[in-house]
Amino acid sequence: MNHVKPLQIAKDRNPLVKIVENQWKRPSQILRKYLTQITGAEFETLNVVTVNPQIIFAKKDYGSSGFGYRICDKDLFIEAGNEQAAVYAVYDFLERIIGCRYYTSEEEYVPKDANLTVCFEDYSFTPILEYRENYYRDYQNKEFAEKHKMAPAEKHEGWGFWCHSFETLVSPDEYFDTHPEYFSLYQGERVGKNAQLCLSNPEVFDILVKNLRKHMEKHPEAKYWSVSQNDNDAYCHCEKCMAMNEEDSSPMGSVLRFVNKVAKQFPDKTISTLAYWYTRKAPKVTRAENNVHIMLCNIEANRGMPIETDPRSAESKQELLDWKELCGNVFLWDYCIQFRNLVSPFPNLRVLGPNIRFFVENNVRSLFSQSNREIGGEFSALRGYLISKLMWDPYCDEKAVMQDFLNGYYKQAAPYIAQYIDIMHDALEASGGELNIFGGPLDCCKTYFTKELFRQYMELFDQAEYAVANDAEALFRVKTARMPVYYAALCLNYGTKEELLEMLSRFASQARKIGLEKVEEWKITTDQFVTDTVARLAEA
Asked: How far apart (Å, rounded) are the C-alpha atoms in residues 530 and 504?
């Protein structure tokens, strides 16, 4: 073990070090801002090394987003291969060494220490996942995403097209009336809207390449370009397309052959395509070109048990194993919430770690977690935090990460929230672990949300609220965490009419305070849910 001398950064609110940015202005300014918040001292940033103790930003290659930091004599070195990685290094240093915590885009913990001293062994880390995106609403905030070393959600930085691009590249509005043969032969007729392209038609290839090149010229900085199916299953059944599919024993046959041809036209770009819905099954014969990127979507997997060991997810497991053998560039599109009921209890926290470890152990190097793009949702802060930590380091101790979050975020209520989580997950596992991303309260009324368990959950939240009754911030967070219990109980009519109306009133009140707009992706608003529930209870 190295014997590292402590480095004192401030004394009595006075700076004892200078920050040498070496042309990396943004990470140095972030570090300066937080050190000032922590110590009360005003730090100076320089472009040149001095004889004074320093925090020095230095260039060293740790991969695209890896970094290291170390103490050498009287200086602290923060090393990375580029400015973005240096930003990650700063946030990581502040978190691991000093104790900052980034709970949500608006809620974080920054310790106060006017005499800040640090002492640590040399540290470096290069993540397994080269691309990491967490789709929770909070991570649309670039600064917050960076704090967790994530790509900003929905911005898809580095991408030209993200997915479902056939319709953009060969528009039915422009071509279908004059060239219906460019589009799917489906159920005996050519279909333009809500269908796919006829991928065996050479004119379709020429038009798509021409239009793709135009888009690339407008965005030369983008490395990834999706050439992928529209969001429907009406693929072409013409004789030539079906012959390719039959040879490959998968509708992916015609898609991947087409995409491979496109990729050869753009050797300096990565051409991405979806393995989704009818194209999830890997082709028997066709192999992806080196610059083709497969975006595999595991939408059908059960979420109550790890994909690797759950017989119900055997198909999703095998799809990844097959693509692993056929393509060295697998992007995994994972699904981590209940989309049909965004606020309903969804006990999948224990499977996040095993699933992500299974992914990376089978050549997944890019991971997109489709979570909740709406405001709020069941345990949105906790689940988003845990997903981010696991994406960065799949082998972190997720139990310790979650407990640390609970202690910091819910404070004195943490033991009761932890018990609620454990009871619900234990009940799910004891029942067989069935958890559907398009399910809801009716699916769990005999498993993890029985009437008896509901009463236990209510008692635990009563205790949690009492524990933080004098802490307005923590109490607000506990009341938000309780909303899913009210929501499920209202859906299942757990209580008398008066009890249900009281729960609805509390649910609606907290929903207004947090800005909860929807209880279902795309469709049902919170106002509609409240109005419909009032009407239903009035008729009871």
From this structure: 7
pLDDT in tens, 195-248: 999 999 999 999 999 999 999 999 999 999 999 999 999 999 999 999 999 999
Domain assignment of residue 337, yes or no: no
- Please, what's the largest Cα pairwise distance for the chain? 81
Q: Is residue 385 part of a domain?
A: no
Cβ partners under 8 Å of residue 482, min gap 6: 461, 464, 465, 510
Please state, in angstroms and as integers, the Cα–Cα distance from residue 85 to each residue in 48, 132, 245, following that order: 21, 13, 43
- Distance (Å, whole) CA 347 – CA 334: 16
Q: What's the per-residue H, E or C state across 141-182?
A: CHHHHHHCCCECCCCCCCECCCCCCHHHHCCHHHHCCCCHHH
E strand intervals along 276-410:
292-297, 330-335, 364-370
Domain-terminating residue out of 208, 242, 269: 269
Same domain, 214 and 100: no
The predicted-structure confidence for 338-372, as pLDDT tens digits, reads as follows 999 999 999 999 999 999 999 999 999 999 999 99
Q: How many structural domains does the chain have?
A: 3
Q: Would the pLDDT of 15 be above 60?
A: yes
pTM summary value: 0.94
Alpha-carbon gap, residue 41 to 15, rounded angstroms: 5
Q: Which residues have C-beta within 8 Å of that of residue 314, sequence separation ≥ 6?
A: none
Residue-number span of the structural domain to which 502 is assigned: 408-539
Neighbours of 501 (CB within 10 A): 16
CA dist 232 → 184, 194, 253, 402 (Å): 11, 6, 17, 38
CA torsion 243-246-250-253 (nearest 10°) is -40
Residue 98 burial by Cβ neighbours in a 10 Å radius (0-12, 13-18, 19+): middle
163 and 261 part of one domain: yes
